[in-house]
Amino acid sequence: TDLVRQVAEHTSQVVAVVYTDIARDGMLAGPNFESLQILQLASPFPVIASGGVTTMEDIRQLLQMKSPGCIIGRSLYD
Description:
The protein has four helices and three strands, in the order αβαβαβα. The longest helix has 10 residues, at 33-42. The protein has helices at residues 2-10, 33-42, 56-64, 74-77; strands spanning 17-20, 47-50, 70-71.
């Protein structure tokens, strides 16, 4: 959140921030919804969820959180 705030102080020309919880990336364990929400509240930019997005229920929850998008990786292959 600190980095996003610092960037926002210097420019508004950011299209989006991609938030990847590297502890969940590729683990098929679902996103870190708590940390994602914290970043969404702190960021003036849209936040794209990445890391752990596995099921349609994950995507539904992200939609409820008003996430503008998500990155789906390993779950496509598994």
